[in-house]
Every structure is written in structure tokens, then in C-alpha cells.
Amino acid sequence: MKTIDTPLADAAMATSEALAIVAKGDLCAGCGGCAGMFPDAIAIRTKAPGFLRPVQVGALPVGADDAIADICPGLGQRVAPGGRRDDPLWGPWRSAWTGWSMDGGERHRGASGGALTALLTHLLRAGVVQAVVQNAPDPKAPLANRTVLTDDPAAFSATAGSRYAPSAPLEALPDILADGRRVAFVGKPCDAAALAAIRARDPAVARAVPVIVSFFCAGVPSATGAREILRQLRVEETEVARFRYRGHGWPGRATAVLHDGTERSMTYRESWGGILSKHVQHRCKICADGTGKAADLVCADAWEVDDSGYPRFDERPGESLVLARTVLGEQIARGAQAAGRLALRPYDMARLADIQPGQRERRRALSARLAALRLLRQPIPDYRGLGLRRAARQNPWRRNLRNFLGTLRRHLRR
Ligand SMILES: Cc1cc2nc3c(=O)[nH]c(=O)nc-3n(C[C@H](O)[C@H](O)[C@H](O)COP(=O)(O)OP(=O)(O)OC[C@H]3O[C@@H](n4cnc5c(N)ncnc54)[C@H](O)[C@@H]3O)c2cc1C
Ligand code: SF4
Ligand code: SF4
Predict the structure, then answer these.
(1) Cα dihedral across residues 279, 356, 392, 76: positive or negative
(2) Cα of 286 to ligand 3 centre, how many Å?
């Protein structure tokens, strides 16, 4: 689970054909799945400009390369509606609500309404699972993340809130299996997709991780993004004791708490819109999911929009979107509501495209971007069942053309 900032030889990766294709196309999402499956052969390291990437540190067992090719979200993703409603932008789903944690502290600390943490609290208190695998700040590097296994909801005060920095939670797979308890897993949509694919191959993983929870994801910025926030706040990294990307209000400010106890902060619009969104990895720009299609439950920001149709980021009591994609997800959400842990109000999914413009535009533009990369003979993920053509048809042809040419131009310049 630990990461070391050292440039290991890329040549070692050449022995894995799958990882070589990932590296050639810059397709790694940084989920950690390959390292979690083959910990003696693959490790996760921080690589410039600050992303988590696999490096080969040992010989791969026979068949490992095929297994990596099967589960790696950089190489592909498969989604099957399985009788559920299937929206071209949002994928298969069963029920949608807006919601927030009934615990005021949990709601305040959460990235949006603390609904995700309320669901985890319910899963533990109701005994559905015995522990939760999720993301937390790294105490040794306050801008960075680490993966933690938690069985006490009191610890959720440290894990709540979105952290716009790399995380590779599936690197912890051997620890999860060794732990032996039944866990719920929280991760980015690509982490969820990789885990679902690993579960389909390995019954031991399926038994150990019966619940997958995710969130909408616009992309993971490199560590350079967070350092740019500090630079604009005029803070040295060594001065920082703790760092919040958001939360403690909705959306909450990016806040550096210094060793002397003082705080420096900036708004969400300044941190995400002005800085972090410009540092996201290539895989995120061609992400066909971003909304957790492999998860049982997904949370997101239930933004309100202004008159021009853009989300309002003025501070308010938090509200999450809660999307149940499976029967199990529905049962968990309704169970949390019945236990008085989560407030839920039915949500009209027809409104979602208005309040998630980033997700909407990326999905609609994706076919055009992938076509440009294909023309340039760049490796691209093999997406199946993700409704790319249906999404592209929602775009005027001029916008698709602009995305096609923009992708061509960016890559030729590179
Ligand atoms: C990189 C990133 C991009 C996002 N993009 C969007 C978006 O485009 N649209 C949108 O509506 N919402 C987005 N979100 C999600 C949103 O910020 C909230 O997480 C979501 O609204 C749930 O809020 P909550 O208050 O219910 O969750 P909380 O109760 O605050 O719980 C958040 C959970 O997410 C986990 N988590 C936080 N950061 C990470 C990470 N880096 N990797 C893995 N797990 C993590 C925490 O451990 C915790 O379990 C993004 C989040 C991240 C981390
Ligand atoms: S996306 Fe995940 S599985 Fe694929 S190479 Fe990167 S870390 Fe490994
Ligand atoms: S945008 Fe897609 S690929 Fe990037 S981190 Fe989010 S889910 Fe993973």
C-alpha cells in the first residue's frame, strides 16, 4: 500500500505485453489492480508528474498477462445492463435519490452530503460487512492518499471528503484477502470496474468483497496539481500538517492546515476549476465511465444549476446524489434510510444531464476523441456496452468534429 517516489526502469515493464500497451497509450488509470493481483511481480510507484503507475519488479506467473489484459480498465471495460434501465449517459441503474447523512457532523465533513459515509456506517452497524476499504489522507504526505481498512465508523471522520489526488486502492487486494473479513470497497469508477472484473475471475475476491461503492469522477489530477494549489496559497509543502481538498461544507474549500495551526484556503471553483482539472491524467479524458457503472451504489454532487445552466458552488448544507445500480445497492440505501442514518428523496434522472455538465460533455464527445486516437494509431480502451454511439448522437456534429480535431491537434503537438 505504500508508494515510493523513485523512477524505476520502464524497460522492466516490457515483459508484460498488457502493461506495455497501457504505457504506450498512457492508458493507466492508476487503480492498482495489476499490482493487487500479482504483488510479487508488479508494484505501484509514483511517477512524474505525480501519478501512481505500475512497475514490474519480478517475473509474471504464467497467464498473468492475460489476466491483466482482462481486468485493466486502461485496456477496456464491459458493462451489461442485465434488465436494468440503461441510460446512454449514465448507464444501468435501478433507483435514484438525493440524500444526506442524518448525522450533522457526517453531513458537514462529507464532500457533498456525507451520504456515502452514511451508507458505509450503515453497512458496518447492520453487519452487512465487517470492515470497509477506503481512501484516507496519508499522514506522512498530507497532499497524498493511502488506502485504509476500517471497522469503526468513528474513524470515518478522517476518510470523508473527496481527495483529488491519485489513489490505487486495489493494490491493497492481498491485505484484504489476508484480513479475511467481509468488506465493502469504496473506489473511483475505474477501481470499481477493475474490482468487478477481478471478482468475476476469482471467487475468493467475490466472497471477500460483496459490496462496491463508488462516486462520480471527473478525473484524477497529478500530485503537481495539489502542489500548484500550495504555490498559489503561498505555502511550502513542509509547512503543511493536514490538507483537505474539499468537504467541511458543500462544496467546501481546499484547505491547508499548517503546523502552527493557521489555515490557508481557496474556493472549490478556484482549486478544482482553476488548477486541479488542468492536471488530470490522459485516461480520464477518454473515460467512458466516470459514473461508477460497476458499483452497487454511487454517490455524486446533487448540484443546483444557475440560470445559465451551470452548477452553483455557493456554500450550502450538502446534498449527494445517491444512485443504486443493483438490487443489493437498493436494499442498502433503503436499509440506511429505514435505520434513520440517511435522508433520501426520489430524484428525476432526466435532470442529471443539467447538473453534471462535465460528465455529460465528456460522454458525448468520447466517440470523436477515440476516433482521433484510432486514426493516430494510439492504443485506446476497448469499451463494450457503454453506449458510446448513443451518447455521441446527443452531440451536434460540429461539436463532435471540434473534439475530433482538438484531440488530433493535442496529440500531434505532443
Ligand atoms: C477524483 C474525484 C473526482 C470527482 N468528480 C466528480 C464529478 O465529476 N461529479 C460529481 O458529482 N462528483 C465527483 N466526485 C465525487 C464527489 O466529490 C463526492 O465524493 C460525492 O459527491 C460523494 O460525496 P459524499 O459527501 O456522499 O461522500 P463522503 O461521505 O465525503 O465520502 C467520500 C468517500 O470517497 C472516498 N474517496 C475520496 N477521495 C478518494 C479518492 N481519491 N480515491 C478513492 N476514494 C476516495 C473517501 O474515502 C470516502 O469513502 C469526485 C470525487 C473524486 C475523489
Ligand atoms: S489501470 Fe490499473 S490494472 Fe491497468 S495498468 Fe494501471 S494500475 Fe494496472
Ligand atoms: S475519470 Fe475515469 S479513469 Fe479517470 S480516475 Fe475517474 S473513473 Fe478513473
Answers:
(1) positive
(2) 9
